[in-house]
Write a structure and sequence with these properties.
Number of domains: 1
CATH class: Mainly Beta
Helix content: under 10%
Number of helices: 4
Distance between the termini: 33 Å
Largest sheet: 8 strands, antiparallel
CATH topology: Jelly Rolls
Order of helices and strands: HEEEEEEEEEEEEEEEEHEHHE
Length: 302
């Protein structure tokens, strides 16, 4: 996911992909997609005034992903029985209309560098070793397409061993468009964490519309806010009933688009044609209709 607002010559695209992925011959060519039906980010209002000092900001207004801020992850490690391989390709990570697009693609028989086999590729970016922080507000303006078994997410992760250094899931969507969820993971409360909560949107205001997903992080609490409204609070006292508070260390930013796997399957109960992914969503992915748009990302501190 990386092009946007530009016309790419097919020959140049082919050269770029071949040069980067000589061993990966099944990555589809990137598409130039239309503006999202929820409205172009370019027409959207500016981000709300920051409440503190801005220590990180990206509005994805450049010609391509800013590699001084972001890394594109490549599979490697594979978790949660998810269906996709992450690739560093402008087929799955690109910019268009002043927004980041994460775009899962059908790529049957794709083989990773370490020999794993997948039928889907997708994008995942992070700021590890480029930006991390401790305490403050992390927020992003995001919209995504609906589809049973899609699993896009916006989250923070500690720099060392998981779950000891904690995970803060600001937004996860698993295929029911009227809600998204927030969660935290740490020692004694990871995986099937007791600290998870859903936010149900008003009618016709689901995840396919633009929303600002945020967390306010202090030494003793995490307050999750969707469009400025608190939807979940986790405190040090609450986690101490299960294990050590894992949110007193620096964390980096992650945006990704997973497919199927444990969390969607737990909600939808689907095992065919793929674990956690509906056949209607498979068709949607094959038709290049499944995407996550990110208008901007910002971190502020007092």
């Amino acid at each position: 996911m990386q092009p946007k607002g530009r016309t790419w010559l097919l020959g140049l695209i082919g050269l770029c992909i071949c040069a980067t992925f000589m061993q990966d011959t099944r990555i589809p060519a990137p598409l130039v997609a239309a503006a999202p039906p929820g409205g172009s980010p370019a027409a959207a209002p500016a981000p709300p005034a920051p409440k503190g000092k801005v220590v990180f900001f990206d509005d994805f207004s450049g010609p391509s992903l800013d590699r001084s801020k972001w890394n594109a992850e490549v599979t490697g490690m594979h978790v949660n029985h998810e269906l996709q391989a992450y690739v560093d390709s402008n087929a799955t990570i690109y910019l268009e209309n002043n927004a980041l697009v994460l775009h899962p693609r059908y790529a049957k028989g794709y083989v990773t560098k370490d020999g794993q086999h997948f039928d889907f590729i997708s994008g995942r970016i992070n700021t590890k070793n480029k930006f991390d922080f401790k305490y403050g507000t992390a927020e992003a303006r995001i919209r995504m397409t609906d589809g049973t078994g899609l699993w896009p997410a916006w989250w923070l992760l500690g720099n060392s061993e998981w779950p000891a250094t904690g995970e803060i899931d600001i937004m996860e969507y698993v295929g029911e468009q009227d809600w998204a969820s927030a969660a935290v993971h740490g020692p004694g409360y990871s995986g099937e964490t007791p600290f998870v909560n859903r936010y149900y949107f008003n009618k016709n205001k689901g995840v396919t519309q633009w929303h600002i997903y945020a967390v306010d992080w202090t030494p003793d609490s995490l307050v999750f806010k969707y469009d400025g409204a608190p939807m979940f609070r986790v405190t040090r006292t609450m986690t101490n009933n299960y294990g050590k508070w894992a949110f007193d260390n620096n964390k980096y930013l992650i945006l990704n688009f997973a497919l199927g796997g444990a969390y969607p399957a737990k909600i939808n109960g689907i095992h065919q044609p793929y674990y956690g992914l509906a056949s209607t969503t498979l068709d949607q992915i094959k038709n290049n209709q499944s995407k996550m748009w990110v208008d901007w990302v910002r971190v502020t501190q007092n």
